[in-house]
Design a protein that fits this description.
alpha+beta; 167 residues; 3-stranded antiparallel sheet; Immunoglobulin-like; 4-stranded antiparallel sheet; 2 domains
Length: 167
C-alpha cells in the first residue's frame, strides 16, 4: 500500500509514510478524522525526490488521544486513499491492570474468574477491531470503520473507568 500509519512511541505519535500517487505531486494533504465525533485535523506531508513522504503527528494534536480515526490522503485535491487508525492505549492500559490483578490472584475464586472473563472480553474485542483495521485498509469500505468503532467502544465500556493508565 502506498499509504500507511502506525501508532508509535507509547501512543504519543502517528508515524505516517506514503509514496506519491500523482507522479508530479510534491506534497500530500492528510486529513485525520475521529470517526465518532467527526472532528478532524489536517497535516501536510512533503515528498522527497524519490516520491516518498514521511511525517510524525503528535497524538496530542488530535481531537482525542484514543479512539478510531479515518486518515485520508489527497494530492492536488484528489483523494487517493483512506485508511483506519485505531489508537487504543486506554484499552491496553486497562488490560494491563486486569492482568496485574490476575497475577495477584492466589485462588480460583469468583473475583478472579470475573476479572479473567472481563479481560478476555476486552482482549477479544480489541483483537477483532485490529483485524477489522487490517481488512478496512485493503477494502476502503465505510462499514469497516463503523465496525471498528463499535468494537472499540464496547471494549472501552467494559473497562468502565475502573482501569487504565489515567486512573
Amino acid at each position: 500500500m502506498a499509504f500507511n500509519i502506525n501508532v508509535v512511541n507509547s501512543c504519543k505519535l502517528l508515524a505516517m509514510n506514503a509514496k506519491r500517487y500523482d507522479p508530479i505531486s510534491l506534497q500530500a494533504t492528510i486529513e485525520i478524522t475521529n470517526v465518532d465525533s467527526s472532528t478532524s485535523v489536517s497535516v501536510i506531508m512533503n515528498y522527497d525526490a524519490a516520491g516518498r513522504g514521511r511525517i510524525n503527528v503528535p497524538v496530542s494534536n488530535l481531537p482525542t488521544s484514543n479512539g478510531v480515526y479515518r486518515a485520508c490522503l489527497s494530492e492536488g485535491g484528489i483523494e487517493y486513499a483512506c485508511i483506519p487508525v485505531l489508537i487504543k492505549c486506554d484499552i491496553d492500559c486497562c488490560l494491563t491492570k486486569l492482568t496485574d490483578e490476575l497475577i495477584d490472584c492466589s485462588c480460583d475464586c469468583a473475583r478472579c474468574a470475573t476479572t479473567l472473563a472481563k479481560a478476555q472480553k476486552i482482549y477479544l474485542l480489541l483483537k477483532s477491531a485490529e483485524s477489522a483495521v487490517e481488512i478496512a485498509s485493503e477494502s476502503q469500505s465505510q462499514s469497516y470503520f463503523e465496525d471498528i468503532l463499535d468494537k472499540y467502544k464496547k471494549a472501552r465500556e467494559i473497562c468502565d473507568n475502573n482501569c487504565g493508565c489515567d486512573c
